[in-house]
Design brief:
Keywords: Membrane, Transmembrane, Transmembrane helix. This protein has 289 residues and is an alpha+beta fold. It folds into 3 domains: 141 residues, no CATH class; 52 residues, no CATH class; 49 residues, no CATH class. Helices cover 44% and strands 12% of the residues. It starts with a helix and ends in a 28-residue tail after the last helix.
Length: 289
């Protein structure tokens, strides 16, 4: 056998050994990539579950305020997003999500500034030193009321006089935070690294915050949250001013009634002060068919 043939045979044998060594080294990496893909799938489901729960609260805010209804929503959440996931198994066929009870979820209301900080900051830039009002006094750094805490009392006063509180609404309310937590393979907590390529026990969390009650009314005229009730609450003044206005306009109302009685004003009987329907659209505002 020539030296050239022997060299070629040895070279082929070396390439085969190198290929085998690289292949053996890549096998754990391939298994790890598959496992990481399964973890990524679980992570995506956790994010989707938190969004689903948050938007459930946006559609039905009253349900998320009731603990019993929240439990019902969480049960449905587990069934929709985490039950019967054939992909979520390790190399031995054991489920990565061992029990549906390993999925936890909660809903909590959140408060936000809603522009009050900006409004108070602009008010603080105006020179109102020495001006007092509503039991308060501007001291140069902010409004103080009663207990002397600057800012907070001014915010409440602003909300009550010209904000959503006049209509039975909360200027700082409405945000809801949905949290979902998932324990992956909790029985594998004693694993050391990926020596056996077994799953690691991990906890995945996701959090979504949405505006769940965008000051929606329950209807035109039913209940305390209706358009009629809220607009009525916002349109009323205090009893003293309401009485003064009623007395001041009484002569005008008598005059309208008199003109209706003698025929000068045929629609005098349709005049209903403070009894308008805020949900009704005037006929002249409706489009022609």
């Amino acid at each position: 056998m020539s030296g050239r043939s022997l060299f070629a045979r040895r070279t082929r044998g070396q390439a085969l050994v190198e290929t085998l060594v690289v292949a053996i080294a890549l096998v754990p990496l391939a298994v790890l990539v598959v496992l990481l893909g399964k973890y990524q799938s679980i992570r995506s489901a956790t994010v989707a579950a938190s969004r689903s729960l948050a938007f459930d609260c946006a559609a039905r805010p009253a349900d998320c305020a009731d603990p019993a209804r929240v439990d019902w929503l969480v049960q449905g959440l587990r069934q929709r997003h985490f039950d019967r996931q054939a992909l979520w198994r390790d190399r031995a066929g054991r489920p990565l999500l061992e029990r549906l009870s390993d999925v936890g979820a909660a809903v909590a209301p959140q408060r936000f500034d809603a522009g009050l900080g900006t409004a108070l900051g602009r008010a603080a830039s105006v020179d109102l030193t020495g001006i007092g009002g509503a039991g308060g006094l501007y001291n140069g750094s902010g409004f103080t009321f009663g207990n002397g805490a600057p800012g907070a009392s001014a915010a409440r006063l602003l909300d009550t006089l010209a904000g959503p509180a006049r209509f039975g609404l909360a200027i700082e309310g409405g945000l809801s935070e949905a949290r979902v937590q998932l324990a992956v393979a909790p029985s594998h907590a004693a694993n050391v690294g990926f020596a056996r390529l077994d799953p690691l026990a991990l906890t995945m969390r996701s959090r979504t915050v949405v505006l769940t009650d965008a000051w929606n009314a329950s209807g035109p005229d039913n209940g305390a949250a209706s358009v009629l009730a809220r607009s009525g609450a916002g349109s009323r003044l205090d009893s003293v001013r309401e009485t003064r206005l009623a007395v001041g306009y009484q002569l005008t109302r008598w005059s309208i009634g008199l003109m209706g009685a003698i025929g000068l004003e045929p629609y005098a009987g349709d005049f209903r002060p403070q009894q308008g329907n805020p949900d009704a659209v005037p006929a002249d505002r409706l489009g022609q068919p």
